[in-house]
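User: Good morning. I'm curious how 3-methyl-2-oxobutanoic acid would be positioned relative to this chain. Could you predict the structure with it bound?
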Amino acid sequence: MAVTVTTMKKMKQEKDKITWLTAYDYSFASLVDEQGVDAILVGDSLGMVMQGHETPVPVTIEQSCYHTECVARGVSNTMVVGDLPFGSYQTSKEQAYENAVKLMRSGAHTVKLEGGELQVETIQFLVERGIAVCAHIGLTPQSVHQLGGFKVQGRGAAANQLIEDALAVEQAGAFAVVLEAVPQSLAEQITQKLSIPTIGIGAGPACDGQVLVLQDMLGIYPQKSPKFCKNYMEGAETIQQAVGNYVAEVKEGMFPAQEHCFN
Ligand code: KIV
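Assistant: Good morning! Here's the predicted structure, ligand included:
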């Protein structure tokens, strides 16, 4: 049965861990779908792993739509999350709506955007118009130049702001929130406070679900992988097995292990 926002909410309530992976093309999307991953994020990480840029900043809405179309053709049950790239939603809520519609016409079931409190009006505007929105807080790669690099967020006094951001996006109607590169105890607190699922990447095992960049977890991205990633091709004979092992380890609470976490 197709995975929906309702499925994910129920999974949180039943403490059934949610699995997400990125994918950007038809073949990998079909494989990920077959392995029972709950959602495919057509992330703007495509700028790095598909295009070879150092950050996702150069990705355009046209490119996001193209990759979303490719992924959507490969999917039967998995939710497709389209990613609004840098510059495609920050000007106005109307701009965000126009570009979210483009992603949905390309086959996305839901959309993701980066930001917490500052994006509340935009999230509300999209939700009121029938668009399911996932927020992304913590390390927000589109702001990498402002953040001074791909660094852990929410340590010390910054923790309160992240909690406020999470509560604000839930209140605005987001169906889920990605927590990237935050201390595991903070991610746990946020997960307990929210009724919507938290999807962690470098945020520890207490999150309701996990997401990884496909090329990172297959060990095929030529740059150094982040600490929070695990190479699932090690010990696997096929890509299918690697993805299946990821799903099993997330479901069993074995991934992420302490070595993949920040404190
Ligand atoms: O673009 C992406 O792949 C992402 C994940 C890292 C969460 O935003």
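The beta strands are 18-22, 39-42, 79-83, 110-114, 133-138, 176-180, 198-201, 209-212. Residues 112 and 134 are 5 Å apart (CA to CA).
Let me know if you'd like a different ligand tried.
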